[in-house]
Amino acid sequence: DIQMTQSPSSLSASVGDRVTITCRASQTITSYLNWYQQKPGKAPKLLIYAASSLHSGVPSRFSGSGSGTDFTLTISSLRPEDFAIYYCQQSYSSPPTFGQGTKVEIK
Amino acid sequence: HLQLQESGPGLVKPSETLSLTCTVSGGFISGSNSYWAWLRQSPGKGLEWIGSFYYSGSIYYNPSLKSRVTIAVDMSETQFSLKLTSVTAADTAIYYCAKHVDTGAHWFDPWGQGTLVTVSS
Questions:
Q1: Which of A55, A70, B29, B114 has the fewest CB atoms lying closer than 10 Å?
Q2: What is the model's pLDDT at position B55?
Q3: What pairing do the DSSP bridges indicate for beta strands B115-119 and B11-12?
Q4: Whole-number mean pLDDT of chain A?
């Protein structure tokens, strides 16, 4: 199985900050990388698919980049509703696997 | 718009079979480019894909669970099910159903709200 490693595991940030979360795959996954946001008590929601494509309805302050083994999710200006846990997921090979999550907390 | 809802017992005894149903509204399981999936989330293992099926009959399981898992579609075309046999405490998790979109690249969207299943005597 392809192992997905996110860093950091958690971070504290203020409203208006630029936030960057990194996801590294244990082998190349080309651009088959998705990002999800999960709020307490809710299911994950798709933010970004195929590394850099913004899912319908997702605010443009979210962006994704990367290819191969290293990927980044960026929130350009953090809003109160963005405090959540973010997960990356590879769809290059089966079984699809997820990172352990990055918790974005209020500073 | 498409919505999914999981249902089933919240408590299952060790060694018994976990059975859940996912009801799809706002769409049909037989739609094009539509796989349908079960996933679960636990504090110990995080998010884990259980398996996916395509309406035409293709089914794919996570090798780590394959010997214990069955995913099936109901003839109503609006429900599909999950059965996990010989459960242990390690199977305690929130179970989600989701649409598994496949356009070459693939992802899970949307997800049901999830249902907590606890394995305990």
A1: A70
A2: 80
A3: parallel
A4: 97
SS3 at position B108: strand
How many contacts does A have with B, using Cβ atoms within 8 A? Answer: 53
Q: Which residues of B touch A (CB under 8 A)?
A: 46-49, 60, 62-64, 96, 98, 105-114
pLDDT recorded at residue B73? 87
Alpha-carbon gap, residue B75 to B88, rounded angstroms: 30
pLDDT at residue B41, as a whole number: 98
Each residue of A74-89: pLDDT tens digit?
Answer: 999 999 999 999 999 9
In chain A, what's the furthest Cα-to-Cα distance? 38
CB contact under 8 A, A43 and B112: yes
Computed over its alpha carbons, how large is the radius of gyration of chain A? 13
In angstroms, rounded to a whole number, what is the distance separating the alpha carbons of residues A43 and B111?
Answer: 6
The stretches in chain B having pLDDT less than 50 are none
Give B9-25 as a DSSP string: -SEE-TTS-EEEEEEEE
3-state secondary structure of B115: strand
Pairing of strands A33-38, A85-90: antiparallel
Query: How far is residue B64 CA from its own chain's centroid?
Result: 15
